[in-house]
């Protein structure tokens, strides 16, 4: 094993050696530098692997042959090995990435580069305080030098600000160090820690100065203008180094030095970290410059880790994993993003759409962004999960909340960025500035992308409840992703369906016997397969569709099969990510996918927050913990409920849905509407079952929310002119019913809820598939531009009609089962007024059902739709399979509902419904025999039809204008089709109920946040002197808060 | 006088450091700011030296036999200050170089003129 | 509010923060633990009578290496972005005339200064001084040269060679310390410690001091040279 | 004939091209595409007691189309007042030709109105009856030399009953209905078939006078 | 579950009686209306003649399959409502097929015919039809609110949705009728009935001259006869529904006829007195006063014992 000291020797020797070349032999110099970096990486890498093997123990390296504290010593342990390895790796890849730039800049720049990496190694390893200072200074000066690689005026300014800031703080650090020495008589960090430096006032001041300066090295918000300028002005390759390598080293230093200040100081570090994380991300929301945005994000992420470092006493054994997961995630993702930025060379994030011309980079970009936000399967997901669990377990609820808020703020700009990259127009000359011809630029990016996924996989053993089986579907998705660009959609569709079918077959035994899970599993998987079938109608390759769809379904399956909160959350986030990619594929989906993602992320964090309490209750991540919450149960349950409700789009949290579902592709809408929304329902059901007595109030409130959601959703749907949006609003309404039903927490309520779940899955799948197909065929979303299609698409009409009758809850179809159960449940529960609102919503549903049927299929056929044919079998076959399902459910409701009833009775929801052998369902209030109703109605229908045919002679078929039109004749089909603003009267009467108040509320919220962010970021005045002043103010404020007492 | 030599030097160090800081933060002219910075670092260096002072001590140089002739002042801060000075020098030199280069661009030494990067 | 007043307030607050430190300083009653150790064992450990030098060069040799690195960095960076390419350079620009006294005196003084520097450098382990001090003095000679003749050209190649060689040598000594002795990086026990107080004593310390001095001297000179030359830009 | 039709073809009835969502071009000929081109056929008139009963029912349930063509239409509203009360005779007003059997051509018929009258008449289900009210429908009356009114209604539409006078009072109308009932009960209420059988002749007459025909030959 | 032929025939007989009673009732009401206007009005047998005439017409035009099936749906809706409700309280023979459901089924089955008719009328491609339907649906939605409130109040009061149980609870004297035991719910329900019956002032749906009688504007001959048959049935059935809910049901055919006549008369009577309302006004009206009364009724039923 090569001693770590050789890292220093090698780097310095090389750096000095490069001086021999003067200004010549630049290419050789670069290779030499890279070889040096590679060697350094190897050294730290071998140490790391040895430590992981356990074949070596922590090594102390004494310099000058004397034992510490008399001489400087370095330490090489597992942590040091890992950190140096990361740093060296980033150095090596960064150097590779900067190959051309460094070559152009000359040997001096290369020396600076390698010295920078070397200094970071020493910073990590050294155990001597003053030595630490020296190498921190080396790092600062080297950074200041590298900022100038591009020799721009902006870079110069940034460099000067950086120098001033670091100069001031290093002076203060020196004061701290020398006084620490004076008090302890020693410079060895371990010795100082052992000496209880913070015991005296002056000692505390010294320790404070040391710690605060090291914190300032991490650019805490708001005293970090100088750091941001560096990120913005420097070459992105340097930005990557600053963010990834220097940041990492600084974090390690803070971790190393923090114990000097004593236990009591940790909470302040947490506060610093959290403020930085939240503040920086919040201010970042206003930023449009890519590099500066990455700067905000870097600072935020580092702040998060600072907070974690401050939380070390709280986190206990998980600390190392959490911190390391977050750091490695940050390092890999941020370095990758900076490098991509260097390849893209677009300052404004809205121009990043040019990424789409380079799929590999785009995928890497997405991986990095999702890793940063903390999506699975990336390490930060594992880290954040464990962090929140531990925080709440240790009663640090506020910290957990702020961390989640900060994460959300990060999501705000990250997803805007993703949206820009995925959806903005690619300017024609955009690709000219691309700089990806060179392998050395692209390769590091791709390596980072692979590494961040691998790091996620490696995180599994460290988190309670994480299993490697969660990665099986992901592997399949990666496989699909690999073949994505080569194969036509048909093949991929077949592969995907086969994969899903197999996956279903494999996973089913896990949940077999659990009826509730089986139902949802069935909806997700069978629904998934059915909704994939319409994809056969699509031509071309459909790049990106299948990985996204499968990601969503993998997430859904994981939600169901998970037996612990981790698995649940893992699946939840996978599903969110997958559905986001599906939704954003729509032509005009950018803004809608964005708001979908924001609501989803916020919801997911609330869920995570709630799960924390469950973890706290039982000390493990098993789902059983949900029922045991003792700490602030109302808060926990409310958070969980709201979290799940973001997915069910309940009132107030619904504004993302209409656009997201309405603008999605025609076969995506059924996936996200009919299938996906049920995940929220599943979550809510799981939650309600576990809430116990604590949930009474929540359930009561949710009942009202559900009722108003149903009313608002249906009423809005009635006033829609866009076919798919109408269905989307209808989904909101239907989910409102479900929420209301399950909030009752009675057998009947839940049975109604299950009936709605099943029905909504079936009829909304049909509706979205068929209407989506029609929208594609007619080339318009507007209902009033359609019409008269019944003659062209009779099969589609029948499908929609059956679905609509089911939705309206008319007997004899299964929709009535839900209504009947509803009435009984409402009366027995005593939620009369809410019930009436829901029933009112039900009659309103009738109106849009009619509007849709009429506008699409009846009335006047438009000229340009004359040649339309029946929809493709790829759409009709799944639709008719579902119709068969509806029919079965309608004729034999007891076959479906009786087992569920038994399940609910076993869940102690009460035994209020009895089933007779002939299918008669009886409650104390009412009875209903679905079978009999079906028989009677079908018979009556047959007889009446016969009668009508008997008294009717041979009919004469008419054309569309053969109508009694007050003795006139219609002019054009367009002016003879009554559809637009169909319910004008109703709108006049109660349209005010659906005035977009919620939307303006959220708009105001976001404007306020943005304005606030815009106001806060004025502190970054751009004046280096002011920045230095801010540092001083920061120190003063920090001092008086922390030590002022 | 000897009694308070340490405190006096220390006080001078602190005063210089504070004054330097004041200069750094209040002067518009970048050269003056760098002067302020230099004063600041000088102050810090003086503080360092003062820390190592031992009343009645002399330079920590032994006689040929390696015996302590008299009471020594602490050699460590003296060694450290050496490094500190060099670092200060490096930083100052760099800052000056930056300012020179900036001045070439905009012909201004006013720090307020260099606010191209903000927010 | 007036900016300067604000700054004054800030600085005052900073002073308040720092005041406990000042207050705690008792004016040096006794040596620190480390100081005591060095006083007692310095000579036997390193063979150098100048304790400061022994601390600088051996005990805290890594710091010193860092220091050298900083100078190297500063020089490299400054040369990197202040260096003027040949096309942009004005040869022999007109400068303020230099007084006769200065130009004449410099010719006499510079060799003496360099000599003094060399002396301090070589005797660093015995008397006050050492590599840094010596190097700085040598560089002040260069400064005097520039004052006397602003158009003076430094031979950059030689400077680079000296700089790099001494730097590599410094590192090499450090590495040899690890390889050959059980001592460790930058140990001075490369050679026999000899008799304390003699010039050839204290192991590798004089050698290190020499390299250090050369490196510091050349680097500082280099920085000065670059600053001067940068004025030659068109 | 063809030329004239072209000359007076309304813009909305011109052949036009639209592009389908898939980009193909569709040619639309409004008069052919929007209207059924089928020719009507006479219905079978039954016989026997059942037919007699049906005729009685047809006679006792006269649903009048609420379409006033000329000045005689002012005479119809009094029929629903207490004074005349036609409801007691089973005569009722309907708003749509689809549900009406009786078409009262109330007075002079401007050519423009004739076109509407033809349309409304052809849209009524058979058996259907036309009651011509006032002398204008018989010979043009005081408008016999008008450039803009027809003279003899039965040239254009088959008339079941004429009520002479200028204007006839509501009582006369009631008498007319009674007369019509008698005709229907007698099995003579099948003028609709007559119209269909002589469609060529009627159409020629109609088109002769209506220059801007602009509608299919038979308005279903 | 009794699906025997006898049951079927008894139900058919009941249907026949109801149909004729409905026709008679409609001509009676028209005559009452005529008398109010100082006229004599149509003969008592006019509805039968009209029906026969419509069947005797010889033109059958079809706009499409749904146009054809629309009236079928409508009649199935009416007949179904009839079948799902017992005619005579306590009589096994006249209980129809009420075993398959109760009040809830009936409330929702109301819409079955409506939707079918709506689709049929839409298929006629006449804009007037769809205008009428849109008004009808809007009004229907508003009417359902007080209706539901009344039903819920009654369900709370009697703790059942079963017709038999509701009727049973009202036996034993006039004062046991819901209209007396639960006047608020009854008021709400009866006001809702006004809308459900679509008589003036809530008949803008079929505004004869504005949108030539709305949804059935294209219907004629046999199709119209089916619709008329249905309207005869459904008026009685609707009246019977309210009779069962508020007026103690009927234990003999005589009571059935008297009470349905009375209930139906109420709606006609109101219609004679009040002019037509615009749809937005009627929606507002139903959501204001009847709803307020209904909410009070529910609250009273639920919490004032």
Describe the secondary structure blueprint for this structure.
The complex is a heteropentamer of chains A (1045), B (119), C (234), D (220) and E (305).
Chain B: H1 5-26, H2 30-51, H3 75-106
Helix pairs in contact in B: 1-2, 2-3
Chain D: H1 2-7, E1 16-19, E2 25-28, H2 30-33, H3 48-60, E3 62-65, E4 91-94, E5 102-106, H4 111-123, E6 129-133, H5 136-139, E7 161-163, H6 170-185, H7 191-197, H8 199-209
Parallel strand pairs in D: 3-4, 5-6, 6-7
Antiparallel strand pairs in D: 1-2
Helix pairs in contact in D: 3-6
Chain E: H1 5-36, H2 46-56, E1 61-62, H3 65-83, H4 103-123, H5 127-158, H6 163-169, H7 178-181, H8 183-197, H9 221-246, H10 253-273, H11 279-303
Helix pairs in contact in E: 1-9, 1-10, 2-9, 3-4, 3-9, 4-5, 5-8, 5-11, 8-9, 8-11, 9-10
Strand content of chain C: under 5%
Following the backbone from N to C, one meets helices and strands of chain E in this order, namely HHEHHHHHHHHH
What is the tally of beta strands of chain C? 0
Averaged pLDDT of chain E: 86
Helix and strand pattern of chain C = HHHHHHHH
Largest sheet of chain E: none
Number of helices of chain C: 8
Strand count of chain E: 1
Q: Largest interface, with Cβ-Cβ < 8 Å?
A: A-E, 81 and 86 residues
Care to give the gist of this entry?
Chain D has helices at residues 2-7, 30-33, 48-60, 111-123, 136-139, 170-185, 191-197, 199-209; strands at 16-19, 25-28, 62-65, 91-94, 102-106, 129-133, 161-163. Chain D is an alpha/beta fold and 220 residues long. Chain E is globular.
Your description of this structure?
The complex is a heteropentamer of chains A (1045), B (119), C (234), D (220) and E (305). Chain A is an all-alpha fold and 1045 residues long. In chain A, the strands form 2 sheets. In chain A, strands 3-4-5 form a 3-stranded antiparallel β-sheet. In chain A, strand 4 and strand 5 form a beta hairpin. With 234 residues, chain C is mostly helical. Chain C has one domain. Chain C contains 8 helices and no strands. The model of chain C has no long low-confidence stretch (mean pLDDT 82). Chain D has a domain at 63-208: Rossmann fold, CATH 3.40.50. Chain D has helices spanning 2-7, 30-33, 48-60, 111-123, 136-139, 170-185, 191-197, 199-209; strands at residues 16-19, 25-28, 62-65, 91-94, 102-106, 129-133, 161-163. Chain D has a 3-stranded parallel β-sheet with strand order 5-6-7. In chain D, strands 1-2 form a two-stranded antiparallel sheet. The two termini of chain D are 22 Å apart. Chain E is 70% helix and 1% strand. Chain E is globular and about 60 Å long. Classes of the chains: A mainly alpha (1045), B mainly alpha (119), C mainly alpha (234), D alpha/beta (220), E mainly alpha (305). At the A-C interface, helix 1, helix 5, helix 6, helix 7 and helix 9 of A face helix 1, helix 2, helix 4 and helix 7 of C.
């Amino acid at each position: 094993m090569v001693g770590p000291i050789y890292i220093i020797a090698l780097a310095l020797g090389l750096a000095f050696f490069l001086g021999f070349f003067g200004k010549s032999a630049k290419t050789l110099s670069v290779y030499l530098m890279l070889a040096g970096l590679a060697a350094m990486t190897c050294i730290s890498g071998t140490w790391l692997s040895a430590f992981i093997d356990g074949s070596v123990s922590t090594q102390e390296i004494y310099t000058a042959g004397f034992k510490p504290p008399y001489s400087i010593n370095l330490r090489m342990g597992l942590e040091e090995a890992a950190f140096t390895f990361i740093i060296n790796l980033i150095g090596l890849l960064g150097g590779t990435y900067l190959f051309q730039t460094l070559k152009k800049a000359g040997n001096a720049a290369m020396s600076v580069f390698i010295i920078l990496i070397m200094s970071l190694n020493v910073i990590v390893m050294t155990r001597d305080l003053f030595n630490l200072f020296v190498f921190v200074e080396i790092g600062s000066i080297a950074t200041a030098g590298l900022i100038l690689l591009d020799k721009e005026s902006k870079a110069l300014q940034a460099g000067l600000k950086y120098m001033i800031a670091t100069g001031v703080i290093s002076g203060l650090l020196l004061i701290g160090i020398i006084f620490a020495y004076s008090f302890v008589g020693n410079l060895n960090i371990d010795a100082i820690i052992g000496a209880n430096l913070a015991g005296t006032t002056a000692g505390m001041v010294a320790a404070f100065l040391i710690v605060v300066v090291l914190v300032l090295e991490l650019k805490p918000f708001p005293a970090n203008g100088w750091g941001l300028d560096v990120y913005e002005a420097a070459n992105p390759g340097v930005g990557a180094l600053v963010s990834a390598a220097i940041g990492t080293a600084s974090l390690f230093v803070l971790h190393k030095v923090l114990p000097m200040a004593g236990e009591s100081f940790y909470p302040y570090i947490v506060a610093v970290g959290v403020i930085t994380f939240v503040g920086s991300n919040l201010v970042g929301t206003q930023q449009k410059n890519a590099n500066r945005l990455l700067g905000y994000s870097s600072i935020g992420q580092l702040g998060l880790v600072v907070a974690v470092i401050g939380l070390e006493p709280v986190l206990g054994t998980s600390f190392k994993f959490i911190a390391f997961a977050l750091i490695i995630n940050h390092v890999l993702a941020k370095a990758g993003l900076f490098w991509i930025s260097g390849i893209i060379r677009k300052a404004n994030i809205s121009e990043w759409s040019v990424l789409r011309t380079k799929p590999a980079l785009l995928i890497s970009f997405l991986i990095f962004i999702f890793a940063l936000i903390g999506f699975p399967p990336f390490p930060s997901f594992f880290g954040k999960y464990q962090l929140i669990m531990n925080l709440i377990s240790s009663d640090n609820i506020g910290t957990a909340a702020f961390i989640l808020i900060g994460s959300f703020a990060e999501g705000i700009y990250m997803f805007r960025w993703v949206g820009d990259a995925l959806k903005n127009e690619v300017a024609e000359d955009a690709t000219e500035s691309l700089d990806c011809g060179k392998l050395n630029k692209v390769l590091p990016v791709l390596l980072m992308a692979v590494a961040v996924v691998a790091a996620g996989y490696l995180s599994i053993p460290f988190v309670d409840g994480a299993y490697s089986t969660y990665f099986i579907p992901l592997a399949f998705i990666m496989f699909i992703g690999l073949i994505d660009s080569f194969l036509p959609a048909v093949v991929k569709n077949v592969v995907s369906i086969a994969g899903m079918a197999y996956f279903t077959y494999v996973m089913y035994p896990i949940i077999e016997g659990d009826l509730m899970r089986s139902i949802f599993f069935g909806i997700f998987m069978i629904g998934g397969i059915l909704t994939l079938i319409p994809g056969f109608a699509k031509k071309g390759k459909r790049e990106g569709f299948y990985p996204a769809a499968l990601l969503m379904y993998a997430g859904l399956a994981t939600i169901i099969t998970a037996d612990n909160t981790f698995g649940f959350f893992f699946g939840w986030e996978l599903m969110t990510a997958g559905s986001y990619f599906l939704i954003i594929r729509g032509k005009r989906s950018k803004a809608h996918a964005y708001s979908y993602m924001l609501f989803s992320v916020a919801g997911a964090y609330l869920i995570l927050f709630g799960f924390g309490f469950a973890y706290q209750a039982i000390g493990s991540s098993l789902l059983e913990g949900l029922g045991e919450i003792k700490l602030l149960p109302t808060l926990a349950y409310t958070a969980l409920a709201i979290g799940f409700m973001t997915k069910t789009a309940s009132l107030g949290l619904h504004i993302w849905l209409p656009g997201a579902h309405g603008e999605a592709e025609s076969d995506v809408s059924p996936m996200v509407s009919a299938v996906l929304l049920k995940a929220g329902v599943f979550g809510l059901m799981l939650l309600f079952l576990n809430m116990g007595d604590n949930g009474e109030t929540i359930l009561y409130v949710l009942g009202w929310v559900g009722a108003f959601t149903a009313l608002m959703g249906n009423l809005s749907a009635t006033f829609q002119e866009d076919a798919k949006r109408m269905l989307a609003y209808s989904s909101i309404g239907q989910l409102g019913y479900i929420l209301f039903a399950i909030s009752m927490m009675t057998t009947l309520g839940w049975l109604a809820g299950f009936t709605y779940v099943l029905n909504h899955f079936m009829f909304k799948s049909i509706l979205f598939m068929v209407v989506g197909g029609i929208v594609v065929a007619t080339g318009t979303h507007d209902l009033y531009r359609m019409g008269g299609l019944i003659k062209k698409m009779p099969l589609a009409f029948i499908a929609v009609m059956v679905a609509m009758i089911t939705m309206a809850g008319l007997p004899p179809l299964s929709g009535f089962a839900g209504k009947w159960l509803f009435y009984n449940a409402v009366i027995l529960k005593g939620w009369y007024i809410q019930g009436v609102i829901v029933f009112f919503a039900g009659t309103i549903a009738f109106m849009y059902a009619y509007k849709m049927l009429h506008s699409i299929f009846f009335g006047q056929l438009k000229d340009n739709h004359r040649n339309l044919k029946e929809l493709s079998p790829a759409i009709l076959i799944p639709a008719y399979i579902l119709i068969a399902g509806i029919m079965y459910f309608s004729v034999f409701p007891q076959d479906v509902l009786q087992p569920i009833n038994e399940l609910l009775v076993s869940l102690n929801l009460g035994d209020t419904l009895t089933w007779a052998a002939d299918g008669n369902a009886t409650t104390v209030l009412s009875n209903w025999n679905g079978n009999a109703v079906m028989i009677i109605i079908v018979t009556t229908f047959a007889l009446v039809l016969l009668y009508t045919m008997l008294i009717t002679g041979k009919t004469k078929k008419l054309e569309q204008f053969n109508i009694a039109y007050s003795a006139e004749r219609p002019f054009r089909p367009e002016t003879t089709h009554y559809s637009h603003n169909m319910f004008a009267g109703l709108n006049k009467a109660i349209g005010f109920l659906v005035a977009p108040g919620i939307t303006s509320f959220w708009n105001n919220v976001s404007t306020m946040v943005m304005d606030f962010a815009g106001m806060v970021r004025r502190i970054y005045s751009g004046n280096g002197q002011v920045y230095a002043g801010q540092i001083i103010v920061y120190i003063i404020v920090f001092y008086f808060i922390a030590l002022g007492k | 006088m000897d009694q308070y030599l340490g405190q006096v030097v220390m006080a001078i160090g602190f005063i210089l450091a504070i004054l330097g800081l004041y200069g750094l933060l209040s002067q518009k002219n970048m050269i003056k700011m760098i002067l302020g910075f230099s004063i600041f670092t000088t102050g810090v260096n003086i503080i360092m030296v003062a820390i190592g002072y031992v009343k009645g001590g002399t330079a920590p140089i032994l006689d040929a036999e390696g015996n302590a002739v008299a009471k020594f002042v602490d050699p460590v801060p003296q060694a450290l200050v050496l490094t500190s000075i060099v670092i200060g020098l490096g930083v100052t030199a760099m800052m000056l170089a930056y300012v020179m280069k900036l001045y070439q661009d905009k012909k201004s030494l006013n720090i307020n003129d260099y606010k191209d990067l903000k927010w | 509010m007036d900016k300067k007043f604000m700054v004054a307030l800030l600085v005052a607050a900073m002073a308040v923060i720092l005041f406990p430190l000042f207050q705690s300083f008792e004016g040096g009653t006794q040596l620190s633990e480390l100081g005591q150790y060095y006083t007692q064992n310095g000579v036997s450990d390193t063979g150098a009578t100048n304790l400061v030098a022994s601390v600088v060069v051996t005990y805290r040799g890594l710091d010193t290496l860092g220091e050298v690195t900083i100078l190297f960095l500063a020089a490299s960076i400054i040369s990197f972005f202040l260096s003027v390419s040949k096309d942009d350079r004005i040869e022999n620009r007109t400068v303020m005339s230099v007084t006769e006294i200065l130009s004449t005196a410099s010719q006499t003084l510079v060799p003496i200064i360099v000599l003094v520097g060399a002396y301090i450098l070589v005797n660093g382990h015995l008397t006050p001084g050492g590599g840094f001090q010596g190097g700085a003095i040598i560089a002040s000679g260069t400064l005097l040269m520039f004052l006397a003749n602003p158009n003076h050209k430094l031979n950059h190649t030689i400077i680079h060679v000296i700089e790099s060689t001494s730097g590599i040598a410094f590192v090499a000594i450090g590495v040899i310390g690890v390889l050959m002795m059980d001592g460790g990086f930058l140990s001075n026990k490369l050679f026999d410690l000899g008799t304390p107080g003699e010039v050839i004593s204290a192991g590798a310390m004089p050698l290190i001091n020499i390299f250090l001095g050369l490196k510091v001297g050349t680097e500082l000179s280099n920085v000065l040279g670059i600053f001067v030359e940068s004025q030659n830009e068109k | 004939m063809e030329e004239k039709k072209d000359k007076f073809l309304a813009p909305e009835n011109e052949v036009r091209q639209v592009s389908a969502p898939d980009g193909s071009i569709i040619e639309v000929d409004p008069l052919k595409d929007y209207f059924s081109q089928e020719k009507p056929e006479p219905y079978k008139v039954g016989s026997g007691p059942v037919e007699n009963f049906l005729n009685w029912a047809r006679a006792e349930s006269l649903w009048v189309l609420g379409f006033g063509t000329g000045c005689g239409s002012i005479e119809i509203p009094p029929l629903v007042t207490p004074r005349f009360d036609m409801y007691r005779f089973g005569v009722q007003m309907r708003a749509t030709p689809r549900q009406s059997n009786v078409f009262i051509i109330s007075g002079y018929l401007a050519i423009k109105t004739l076109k509407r009258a033809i349309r409304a008449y052809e849209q009524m289900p058979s058996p259907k009856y036309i009651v011509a009210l006032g002398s204008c429908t018989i010979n043009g009356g005081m408008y016999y030399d008008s450039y803009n009114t027809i003279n003899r209604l039965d040239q254009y539409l088959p008339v079941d009953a004429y009520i002479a006078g200028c204007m006839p009072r509501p009582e006369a109308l009631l008498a007319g209905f009674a007369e019509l009932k008698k005709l229907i009960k007698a099995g003579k209420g099948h003028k609709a078939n007559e119209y269909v059988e002589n469609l060529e002749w009627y159409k020629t007459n109609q088109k002769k006078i209506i220059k801007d025909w602009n509608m299919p030959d038979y308005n279903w | 579950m009794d699906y025997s032929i006898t049951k079927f025939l008894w139900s058919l007989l009941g249907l026949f009686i109801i149909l004729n009673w409905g026709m008679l009732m409609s001509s009676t009401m028209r005559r009452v209306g005529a008398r109010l206007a100082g006229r004599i009005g149509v003969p008592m047998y006019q509805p039968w003649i009209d029906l026969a005439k419509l069947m005797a017409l010889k033109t059958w035009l079809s706009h499409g399959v749904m146009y054809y099936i629309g009236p079928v749906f409508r009649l199935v809706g009416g007949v179904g409502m009839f079948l799902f409700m017992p005619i005579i309280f306590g009589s096994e023979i006249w209980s129809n097929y009420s075993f398959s459901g109760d009040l809830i089924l009936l409330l929702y089955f109301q819409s079955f015919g409506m939707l079918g008719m709506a689709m049929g009328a839409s298929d006629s491609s006449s804009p007037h039809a769809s205008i009428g339907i849109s008004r009808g649906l809007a009004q229907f939605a508003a009417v359902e609110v007080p209706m539901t409130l009344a039903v819920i109040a009654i369900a709370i009061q009697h703790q059942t949705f079963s017709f038999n149980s509701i009727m049973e609870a009202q036996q034993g004297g006039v004062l046991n009728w819901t209209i007396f035991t639960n006047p608020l719910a009854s008021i709400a329900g009866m006001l809702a009935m006004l809308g459900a019956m679509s008589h003036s002032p809530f008949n803008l749906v079929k505004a004869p001259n504005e949108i030539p009688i709305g949804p059935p504007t294209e219907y004629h001959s046999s199709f119209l006869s089916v619709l008329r048959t249905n309207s005869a049935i459904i008026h009685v059935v609707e009246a019977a529904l309210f009779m069962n809910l508020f007026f103690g049901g009927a234990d003999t055919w005589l009571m059935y006829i008297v009470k349905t006549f009375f209930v139906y008369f109420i709606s006609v009577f109101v219609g004679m007195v009040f002019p037509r309302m615009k749809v937005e006004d009627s929606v507002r009206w139903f959501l204001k006063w009847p709803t307020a009364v209904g909410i009070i009724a529910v609250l009273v039923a639920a919490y004032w014992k």
